[in-house]
Amino acid sequence: MTGESERGFFMTFEGLDGSGKTTQIRKLAAWLEARKIPHTLTRQPGGTPTGDRIRNLLLDSKSAGLAPRTELAMMFADRAQTIQEVIEPALASGQVVVCDRFTDSTEAYQGGGRELGSELVLQLHQLLCGNLQPDLTILLLPDLQASLARARRRNAGNNGPDENRFEQEKDAFFSRVYAKFREIAARAPVRVIQIDGDINIDQVHAQVITALEARLKWPVRSKIRP
Fold first, then answer.
1. Residue 63 lies in a domain
2. CATH number of the domain that 106 lies in?
3. Residue 2: inside a domain
4. Is the pTM of this model over 0.85?
5. CA dist list (Å): 69 to 53, 59, 98, 106
6. pLDDT digits (tens, 9 = 90+) for 33-92
7. What's the number of domains the chain is made of?
């Protein structure tokens, strides 16, 4: 990007665990790197030392007793810290920021899955996050049952930290999450690009790049094209 005053571009990936977000973020990072586009990758929960400690509490299956509003408050504590420490500085320096989950996930999981409603989530986002909105959101929504099966299979074979708390929820919980993601996409059709179905990894990546190129500001796009 040109000039110190040029603000960066904020992009988020959303969807259930098992939807392919991690794979697509890795492919996008390689694409940005190959074009020498300055970028920062982060995730939620996590992404900062404080956020990683919050993540451990939120996702550990031993935290089964968390009240829904406690869970919601922890999600926003993590997000506020990441915005302050990672996202805003990177945007101010003109980078493309790619975040694995943002407030759409909180609206879907806590607002929908926990049945706290969207209004509370959006009010907290405005209060604690300055109502920061992504420039582009990629919402991956393959088949619900296929996503759940992949996520549960992956976590069952994971030798790393225990991050199985949400995967232990019943299918009705995830049906509410899935429906709320669709509601968000319908409400924000310009910002949210919804990619449905179990298409292959390269086909999804192609759609991601098409959406990104269409929205990047010209100083960035000029670096993409020879």
1. yes
2. 3.40.50.300
3. no
4. yes
5. 18, 15, 27, 11
6. 999 999 999 999 999 999 999 999 898 878 878 999 999 999 999 999 999 999 999 999
7. 1
